[in-house]
Amino acid sequence: MTSALIVVDMQNAFIRPTGALAVPDAATVVDAVNEHIVSANEAGRPIFYTRDVAPTQLPQGDPDRQTALHDDLLVRGTVVDKGPGKHGGFSGFVLSNAHSAGPGTGGLSDLAEHLRTADVDEVAVVGLAADVCVAATARDARRLGYRATIPLEATAFVHAHPGGDDAALTDLAAAGVSVGQGAHHAY
After folding, report:
1. Looking at residue 59, which CATH number applies to its domain?
2. Distance in angstroms between the alpha carbons of the first and the last residue of the chain
3. How do beta strands 47-52 and 78-82 pair?
């Protein structure tokens, strides 16, 4: 059994207090995600990072580096472009045809291929946000046959689910995603 860590959208747009889509408590999430990265790296587990190519409308050339991974994030693996989130491309497994993806991917990011190549059968999904991109990535991982866990200490909610945060967690559980605290100890 090979476990992988998927780090979702730990980008300046979501983490910087001045970011276009700043998430409350994002700085705390960075620290928790980094703990998961260290644990996975020490255990020799593959780590994949998703980067939303256009989470929001951006000025030409992204001069404020909104789409860049946050400077305080430890990067110890492969970065995979996904999105654009501004058009509903929330899952780490999706990349719109308007952006470059691997040959013949037909709207898919390279994440699934990376997981297959690494012979992964289980993923922990951390990052931003628990009720949007992290949830969509974990649900798609389950649909693709992976066991999926979301460690709550390494994510935050943006309160986007119409039924609230508890309903978001209920929906994830119904999709077969394990949600809990301290899942990084599984590495």
Report:
1. 3.40.50.850
2. 11
3. parallel
Q: What sections of the chain are H helices per DSSP? A: 12-15, 26-42, 111-117, 133-143, 165-174
Quote the domain boundaries for residue 19: 3-186
Query: Which pTM does this prediction carry?
Result: 0.92
Query: What's the rounded Cα separation, in Å, for the pair 24 and 16?
Result: 10
For residue 100, give every residue at least 6 positions away whose Cβ sits within 8 Å of its Cβ, in sequence order, or none: 81
Beta bridge partners of 83: 95
Say which residue the tokens 């928790």 belong to.
32
Tell me the two tokens of residue 149: 């866990």
DSSP state, residue 5: E
* Integer-rounded Cα radius of gyration of the chain: 15
Whether residue 182 has pLDDT greater than 80: no
Residue with tokens 């929906």: 171
Q: Using CA atoms, how far apart are residues 58 and 131, in angstroms rounded to an integer?
A: 23
The average confidence (pLDDT) of the chain is 90
The per-residue b/e assignment along 72-81, b for 16 or more CB within 10 angstroms, e otherwise, is ebbebbeebb
Let me know: does 155 contact 129? Beta carbons within 8 Å: yes
Residues with a known catalytic role: 133
Question: Per residue in 15-35, pLDDT tens?
Answer: 999 998 999 889 899 999 999
What total number of domains does the chain contain?
A: 1
